[in-house]
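Bumping my old thread because nobody answered last time. Still need a sequence for this structure:
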């Protein structure tokens, strides 16, 4: 039974911190590939260290040098605004091995991670990516650190509580947890809207990020629909869809602009200052302190000003486009393309998903048939999202960018990101045959997007990405040769090329150099680069008419995106659509025009006439809301060009040690002082509380490239051992006898012996130690005289000292599969403390013996293919399989022999082969009761000892919190176990959305379930011994301090089958019974953790 204590220790630590201990079932997605093939270098400036990878030490990528220049140029303006400078240099890590755009600010570690490819989002306009993302993330570092209530090396204080089952058995020290609570109090309470709003605002005199037409469109449509997020909903990302998460960004930017305009730019510093106080744990109080006005009033004033402005815009625009919507599901429906014969349409959609991943759909026009030609599983760019910019926001798709029909109408070319042999994530061109649905890959590691066929289908033009810059390339379909078409200056971005349909003599495309973009055309030979549409507006997505005389494109010329046509001979421009929302991504065939139409709930595919709605383009301009105008625009201080750029080989760089104080109420000690026969007096309540209290510290540090990390923790029970004096208490020998939970972990992730292999083993070394003191844990029958009867009973305190060493190697085979191998060494020792013998009338000295020595090898493989959705925190959808084989050689203390007048332990040696298979399948069901997800889950777990029956010490257990909850953990144990569960999860209150101080109440779900479990040793028992239960679990999803997910659960489970458990013949219960009854009663479990997935 004692070996289960390690399960409890490991489980408690994982539940408490979310850390990735190799010995725990950490999700496969938490692990990354080995990156041993990358050579890293460092540019060091006054305030930053910029780390980048390159194929040569002589070549400094443009992205790396631009990051260094930008970082230094914006350092002083940002730190001046907040009157705060980070301690030490800020590390910036540049990743250019994934076709993915994002930034991540690790504010506790003073570290930034950037992805080199420029962001091309359907929800934001064009901006200088590198300059913008550097400023954005460094603003996070400064603003968030400014709000810290203590130093960044002390990010959390953990409060934990563990309650345990009443085992009612003398052969078990204490039960498995039935209550697990871990609640961190962070040194930060910074809402998402403020963090992201200030990071986009940056400074009043910065134009790296601006309130563009996309952003205004998102806000305008929501305000006009009355669907703006509340201040509470803006506080975090919670159960928001991908579109709603972007809305948090968007409204945060807008509200920050409003605050700065109304109260002055320094209001962001004043709010941050107030959040740094331990008295302030919600932003409403901080706003009131900074402005003198209640936050609710400030927010309402802002919404009213927006409503007034946008109603005027609506009246001015009129929204007169006569169009038909083709799509009804999803909020990301875009890049529509009509087939050459005009009878079918292809487009990308996220369908009913709450995430942004899209797949390709072909639909016949004129009927309601939808043909799902290609549905791709979204390839998540990997890694934990916890520290991603805005705590998890991303726009990632599997099939992404524009698509195109072949001119014979037989196939569609598209771009999809694929993993390389090295574990990189690069986009390549693929083609799908419409009739056979066969998919062929056209390029390998080409980093290719936005393909378009030539009129004779012999060539494909596409966008190529490298070092933060994009250019046009041409693929010869027959030979697979790729030729360079353009070579623009670093940082230039090109988008959505379109081949002229008449003679193939021109390739049209959008090109962005700064904060706007223009339409260009170029000959397929690379000659005659011409600007077709230009101006201060953002012009994008060119599409050429069948006769080659007209180019259609999207433009925000009036402040609202609409579709325009330009006659290439006369230069005349006409507006084709007129919408209050936005019109994008046009495609024309004959008189038909299709485009992506935006309203508050996302993009839909619309169809209209290609004829202009007005004969001339009117001089209409929709002004930016006054509340969103930046004030004090002027020259930005600092020069990015004045920095000397040199680099050196990268040297390992570690983050500062972070310390996490912990207070734990570990309630395994009851008021009874003994579980042996003849109970003695009871403890007082305060004494019991003190006895169960542990205090300690978690500590961690890591190398910034994640090649090496350290994690450790120590908790001790100050009142777990009596002391005769203070000197006795603080003596080193006495301190070592206090109860403790100790763990230390080192992880090495660079790989060994398999250079340039993504699956190279990642090593982990873990050490655990548990000490438990049991008062009066041993009773001894003594005869104080030869004729004395009944005998006296003496009691002795005992202690258990358990050590475990794990050496693990794990290999990530692909995005969904992890292979593991480990070695475990487990020496357990029991000590009998000194006691006075009434029989011998003397003090018997302390004695100690090792009662178990285990050595085990284990091999396992885990696969997890899960679908992301808004409610995946309460209802997982997908498949998880974990198969594990373990071979253990165990030496268990059997008896003592006397040799040469001394007691010599005799061990029983066992060789245990155990095979375990654990699987889960979750499926969301059709429909949305109460507007949310519902679904079923099926769990099955089998564990078997291969070979002869072994001692019960090696038993597996399937009861309690992590099994059939209708029975205590130790009620269902044996060499062989089987457990199955079927569950149904459905919403009770799916959209609570209420902020209560530092706590955000998100939603409330109920999980109903039924279990069947069987545990035995030896011969397979009859089916009537299967133990069944039914129960329900209330799941409350909350967010704490705008930062941490908090999962509250309470379950009640009724064990249907009542049965007697026979105790080992060496034990009896305190009442003298030899059996214990289980079942026929309710078992209650509860917890407050980071997630519900136990």
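Sorry it took so long. Here it is:
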């Amino acid at each position: 039974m004692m070996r289960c204590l390690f399960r409890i220790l490991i489980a408690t630590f994982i539940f408490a911190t979310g850390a990735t201990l190799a010995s725990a079932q950490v999700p496969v997605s938490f692990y990354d590939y080995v990156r041993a093939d990358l050579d890293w270098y460092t540019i060091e400036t006054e305030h930053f260290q910029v780390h980048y990878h390159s194929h040569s030490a002589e070549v400094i990528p443009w992205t790396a040098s631009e990051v260094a220049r930008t970082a230094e140029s914006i350092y002083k303006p940002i730190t001046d605004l907040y009157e705060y400078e980070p301690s030490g240099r800020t590390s910036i890590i540049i990743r250019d091995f994934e076709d993915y755009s994002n930034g991540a600010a690790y504010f506790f570690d003073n570290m930034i991670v950037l992805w080199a490819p420029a962001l091309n989002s359907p929800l934001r306009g064009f901006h200088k990516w590198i300059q913008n993302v550097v400023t954005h993330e460094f603003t996070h570092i400064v603003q968030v650190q400014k709000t810290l209530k203590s130093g960044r090396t002390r990010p959390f204080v953990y409060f934990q509580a563990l309650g345990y089952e009443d085992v009612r058995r003398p052969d078990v020290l204490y039960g498995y947890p039935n209550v697990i609570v871990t609640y961190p109090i962070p040194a930060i309470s910074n809402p998402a809207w403020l963090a992201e709003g200030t990071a986009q605002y940056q400074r009043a005199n910065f134009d790296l990020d601006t309130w563009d037409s996309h952003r205004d469109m998102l806000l305008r449509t929501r305000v006009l629909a009355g669907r703006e997020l509340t201040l509470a909903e803006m506080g975090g990302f919670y159960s928001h869809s991908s579109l709603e998460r972007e809305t948090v960004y968007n409204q945060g930017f807008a509200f920050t602009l409003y605050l700065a305009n109304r109260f002055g730019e320094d209001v962001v510093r004043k709010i941050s200052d107030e959040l740094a106080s331990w008295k302030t744990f919600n932003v409403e109080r901080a706003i009131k302190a900074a402005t003198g006005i209640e936050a609710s009033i400030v927010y309402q004033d802002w919404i009213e000003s927006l409503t007034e402005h946008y109603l005027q815009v609506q009246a001015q625009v009129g929204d007169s486009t006569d169009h038909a919507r083709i799509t009804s599901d999803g909020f990301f429906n875009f890049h529509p393309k009509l087939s050459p014969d005009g009878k079918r349409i292809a487009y990308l959609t996220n369908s009913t998903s709450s995430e942004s991943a899209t797949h390709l759909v072909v639909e016949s026009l004129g009927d309601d048939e939808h043909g799902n030609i290609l549905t791709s599983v979204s390839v998540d760019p990997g890694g934990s999202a916890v520290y991603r910019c805005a705590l998890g926001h991303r726009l990632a798709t599997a099939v992404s960018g524009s698509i195109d029909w072949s001119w014979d109408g037989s196939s569609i070319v598209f771009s999809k990101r694929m993993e390389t042999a090295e574990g990189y994530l690069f986009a390549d061109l693929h083609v799908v045959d419409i009739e056979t649905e066969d998919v062929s890959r056209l390029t390998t590691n080409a980093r290719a997007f936005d393909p378009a066929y030539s009129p004779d289908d012999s060539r494909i033009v596409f966008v190529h990405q490298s070092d933060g810059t994009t250019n046009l390339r041409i693929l010869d379909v027959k030979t697979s040769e790729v030729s360079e078409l353009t070579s623009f200056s670093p940082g230039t971005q090109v988008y959505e090329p379109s081949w002229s349909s008449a003679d193939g003599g021109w390739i049209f495309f959008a090109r962005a150099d700064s904060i706007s973009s223009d339409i260009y055309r170029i000959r397929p030979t690379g000659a005659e680069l011409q600007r077709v549409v230009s101006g201060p507006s953002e012009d994008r997505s060119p599409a050429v008419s069948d006769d080659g005389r007209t180019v259609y494109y999207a433009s925000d010329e009036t402040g609202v995106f609409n579709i325009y046509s330009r006659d290439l001979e006369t230069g005349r421009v006409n507006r084709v659509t007129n919408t209050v929302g936005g019109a994008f991504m046009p495609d024309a065939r004959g008189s038909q025009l299709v485009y992506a139409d935006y309203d508050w709930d996302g993009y839909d595919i619309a169809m209209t006439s290609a004829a202009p709605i007005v004969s001339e383009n009117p001089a209409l301009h929709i002004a930016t809301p006054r509340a969103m105008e930046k004030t004090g625009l002027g020259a930005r201080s600092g020069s990015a060009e004045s920095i000397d750029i040199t680099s050196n080989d990268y040297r390992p760089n570690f983050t500062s040690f972070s310390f996490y104080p912990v207070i734990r109420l570990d309630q395994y000690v009851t008021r009874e002082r003994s579980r042996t026969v003849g109970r003695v007096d009871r403890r007082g309540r305060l004494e019991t509380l003190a006895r169960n209290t542990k205090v300690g510290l978690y500590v961690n540090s890591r190398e910034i490239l994640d090649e090496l990390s350290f994690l450790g923790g120590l908790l001790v029970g100050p009142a777990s051992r009596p002391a005769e004096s203070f000197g006795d208490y603080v003596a080193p020998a006495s301190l070592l006898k206090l109860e403790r939970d100790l763990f230390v972990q080192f992880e090495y992730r660079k790989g060994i012996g398999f250079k340039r292999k993504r699956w190279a083993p990642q090593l982990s070394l873990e050490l655990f130690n548990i000490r438990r003191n049991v008062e009066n844990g041993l009773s001894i029958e003594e005869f104080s005289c030869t004729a004395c009867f009944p005998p006296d009973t003496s009691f002795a305190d005992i202690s258990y000292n358990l050590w475990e060493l794990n050496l693990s190697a794990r290999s990530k085979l692909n995005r969904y599969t992890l292979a593991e191998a480990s070695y475990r060494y487990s020496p357990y020792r029991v000590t009998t403390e000194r006691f006075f013998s009434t029989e011998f009338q003397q003090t018997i000295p302390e004695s100690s013996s090792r009662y178990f020595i285990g050595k085990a090898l284990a091999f396992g493989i885990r696969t997890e293919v899960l679908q992301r959705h808004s409610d995946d925190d309460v209802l997982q959808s997908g498949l998880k399989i974990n198969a594990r084989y373990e071979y253990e050689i165990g030496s268990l203390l059997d008896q003592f022999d006397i040799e040469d007048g001394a007691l010599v332990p005799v061990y029983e040696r066992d060789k245990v082969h155990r095979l375990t298979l654990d699987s889960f399948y979750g499926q969301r069901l059709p429909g949305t009761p109460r507007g949310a997800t519902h679904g079923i889950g099926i769990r099955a777990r089998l564990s078997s000892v291969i070979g002869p029956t072994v001692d019960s010490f090696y038993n597996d257990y399937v009861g309690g919190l992590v099994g059939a909850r209708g029975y205590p953990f130790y009620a269902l144990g044996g060499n062989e176990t089987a457990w199955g569960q079927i569950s149904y999860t459905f919403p009770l209150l799916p959209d609570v959305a209420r902020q209560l101080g530092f706590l955000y109440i998100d939603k409330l779900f109920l999980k109903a379930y039924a279990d069947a479990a069987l545990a035995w040793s030896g011969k397979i028992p009859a089916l009537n011994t299967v133990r069944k239960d039914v129960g329900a679990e209330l799941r409350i999803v909350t967010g704490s301090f705008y930062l941490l997910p908090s999962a509250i659960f309470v379950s009640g489970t009724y064990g249907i089958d009542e049965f007697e458990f026979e105790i080992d013949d060496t034990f009896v219960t305190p009442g003298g019974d030899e059996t214990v009854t289980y079942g026929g009663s309710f078992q209650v479990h509860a917890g407050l953790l980071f997630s519900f997935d136990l």
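The radius of gyration is 33 Å. Let me know if any region looks off to you.
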